[in-house]
Sequence to fold (332 residues):
Amino acid sequence: MTGPETVSIVIPCYNEEQTIELLLAAVNRQTYPREQMEIILADGQSTDRTREKILQFQAEHPELLVRLVDNPRRIIPAGVNLAIQAASGDFIVRLDAHSVPEESYIQRSVDHLKAGRGENVGGLWLIQPGKPGWVAQSIAVAAAHPLGVGDARYRYSTIAGEVDTVPFGAFNRNLFHRIGYYDETLVANEDYEFNARIRANGGKIFFDPAIRTQYFARPTLNALAKQYWRYGFWKWRMLRRFPGTLRWRQAIPPVFVLGSLLLLVLSIWFATARNMLALGIGLYLALLFAASLPYARRYQDSRLLLGIPLAITTMHYSWGGGFLWSIFHFGG
Fold:
């Protein structure tokens, strides 16, 4: 790439044949000049048709520089770091293989960086189902609902401003020289840890809801449970380094899970504990049912009255359980 204000789009990927073409096509539609962009994909040695589709796109779009690097460790922070180290742009824009950014995504991100509004700039997730069907639709709703994700503004907010974290992110390249790269000892939560380091060094994280990207949620409850268990497990490892970054949305699930387990054990001997457990579960389910009603009406599908509570419960118990298990595994 040549010229001023070049952008390197870095993308870690592994077995993403279902979505990688959608992402690459979306990057190709960006309003930012193609000659000022490059795409660097760090592939974790995919065993499906991901690499084939990347090479096909590369051949069909010679006007857009596309490079492929190997990520033998197959973890996201290692892939992102490899892609950043191979990048040549003035700005780094990180994207996910499950995402489809809107056409102005890169231009708006760069504009905010140039205006000095933040050391990391990001925007709004528009959560889409990972596949057809009411279960996947329920998961997509849950993944964007405040009951599922708390005050994570990038999942629902319409107000721009400073936040604690954003998905993916856009950065000045020199930021990585100043504070280092992503922490490769964290299999998950590496983005939150990186944002914590930005804030610890006096930087800001800026959120603009006009920077929009579609994001494909996990397609099944089993996949959702694994994802949120991993999030919770690695959150504790990250919090041991930055305890001051804990937010209420992150504290509630482990407290909820621990409280449920304690009441369940105590209910063997004490009627009061049984009554408290029954009341707590009843109120919890009633709240989830009430939250599901507007979506069941909107999509005209009564099955969401079951699916959305199932998805949110899966998120809460998996995240909280993973967090508690991490405390047991790593210690205090």
